Amino acid sequence: MTTLADIAETVPERHYTHHEGRGATPHRSNPVVIHRELTTLDVHPGMHVAEFGTGSGYSGALLAQLVGPTGQVTSLDIDHYLTRWANLIHHDRGLGNIRCHTADGTAGFPERAPYDRMVAWCTPPLLPQAWVEQVVGGGFIVTPLPVAPVPNMTVVAKIRVRDRQPEVEAVFTGGYIEATASPKGDLDLPGRWVDWENRVPGPSWISIAWRGKDDWQNSGARTTLHRLLGDAYTERYDGAEVDWPSWRTFLAAAGNPHLTMAGLKPDLWALGHSTRTAAAVIQQDGTILADRPNSPSLEVLRVWLSNWETAGRPAPESYVPSLVRCEDGDGPAGWALRLSRSS
Predict the structure, then answer these.
(1) What is the pTM of this model?
(2) Cystine design at 283: which of 226, 230, 270, 291 (Cβ 3.0–4.6 Å)?
(3) C-alpha dihedral over 64, 12, 140, 248, to 10 degrees?
């Protein structure tokens, strides 16, 4: 039986990610996680597979090999530059069973449905109903999904569809760029749920889960970001190095409405608590920042960290996943992913 590892040996990764005619594309995922997700997807020859997020085209080339000449792959991306180049590279390599289309993948692609498998390399705001409706009974969807209404709080879920109803079979650590309605140029800034951003003197941003209670000028978000960027109180976390996937999943599962995510420095996320009058976060490097030494948000953050340590820094895979139906009229219908502790 041909395995993904065997197929990967025949697909020239750098030919896609660093093509001589296009150059390097930043819209690409780590081959290790691509292989993990495709192994989880359990693709067989003759299947029809849809992927959301064409990227460099490398993942689509692997899928085309997995389904073989009797199968077909439909690849979607919002960026026509990526789909055009991927189509060309696939054609030049003699792959006739894959087609890349420029489209908003959150709506699926009914023109070529139904699909035996779906895989996403970008994160929708929820599991779209359109995806579930376009998968055959017993089929799988492997996709990142948010577990809290702030950026970068995601897990990858393996979902089986039966009678047009989705059921989560497993979750894994991971996540990909947010799905957006137009091509995303700034890959350093989250594509969704950024409530305020500064671009001078340097880039910074804030995301507050209580945005529904902010005013139309986003003054709560602006003030919170200012508190953390200004003359903030700082201290070092006295615990071991922060296990970021464990920490963010722990807070997401708690569902606190004052959860706050920030990017105060390039490539350094911060996560914590805020209100209209206080703010405190811990960065990935273990630095704690607060608006003042006696900040109420700082007290909350310390309790959260203590509870996390007491729980044993649980792994994301240790949580029980569930899907909650969402149909509030503010966007496409679907299911939100929620996590809870088993004990």
Answers:
(1) 0.91
(2) 270
(3) -160
